[in-house]
Design a protein that fits this description.
single chain; 235 residues; alpha+beta; 8-stranded mixed β-sheet; 8 strands; globular; disordered N terminus
């Protein structure tokens, strides 16, 4: 939002040296960060800043340092809000599981995003649907991953991932009392089992009738566990 304000309120000059413009944009952006995050219901509930806005500010900050010749910082940015303690167990009326998938349709439709939001939103919250040209990325928190998957049945569903929200994704218990932790990835063609596997601590890949699980999907799920050793159940 900061780059759209130059010349109007005097905060960001419309001309002048690049260092002055960048400095003003950064100052305005840091102020706007709190407003943007607080206005978003999910970010407000989770007490976290908008990640995309933070990333943009990091890039602009790096550009500003390069322009003015400032040294590389040795610590985290002082403008980044400190993480506030909060209960991850509160997710509104949505549910305990995070479901993510891609929906592909043979014909591009601007209306499909709205259709997916409405259908998936009926079985959960924290709904996000983005895409274009017949490819839609869907995200929802729900107690019923199988119903969310059924709600998204408006095209070819693939890359379906189900995870438990309030637990390390795909990480099991300690091994032999040591610090090493095993990751767990489960592939299944039964959507009704996805919640059960995820509750057991797995990153779950669901194969739909129209699209199989691929090696690339498995590799991503293995990386998502964040564990040095991963057990894979091919299903």
């Amino acid at each position: 939002g900061a780059h759209g304000r130059h010349g109007g309120d005097g905060d960001v000059p419309s001309g002048g040296a690049p260092s002055d413009v960048l400095g003003a944009v950064l100052a305005r952006g840091r102020v706007e960060l709190g407003t943007i995050s607080d206005a978003h219901p999910v970010l407000h509930r989770e007490h976290v800043p908008d990640a995309g806005a933070c990333a943009l500010l990091v890039l602009l900050d790096a550009l500003h340092r390069a322009v003015v010749g400032a040294p590389e910082p040795t610590g985290p940015p002082d403008w980044l809000p400190a993480a506030a303690p909060h209960a991850r167990g509160v997710h509104g009326s949505g549910g305990a599981y995070e479901v993510m998938l891609v929906v592909r349709t043979p014909q591009a439709s601007d209306d499909l995003g709205g259709v997916l939001r409405e259908r998936v939103g009926a079985v959960g919250d924290s709904v996000a649907v983005v895409g274009a040209d017949g490819v839609w990325h869907v995200h929802v928190h729900t107690d019923h991953p199988d119903l969310a998957l059924a709600a998204a049945d408006v095209g070819v569903r693939e890359q379906v991932v189900v995870r438990l929200l309030d637990a390390p994704h795909g990480v099991g218990g300690d091994v032999d009392g040591g610090a090493a932790r095993w990751g767990l990835v489960v592939c299944t063609a039964a959507p009704a089992l996805a919640a059960w596997y995820a509750a057991a601590g797995a990153v779950v890949l669901v194969a739909t009738p129209e699209a199989p699980v691929t090696a690339e999907h498995v590799a991503r799920a293995v990386a998502d566990t964040g564990a040095p050793d991963v057990a894979l159940l091919p299903g």
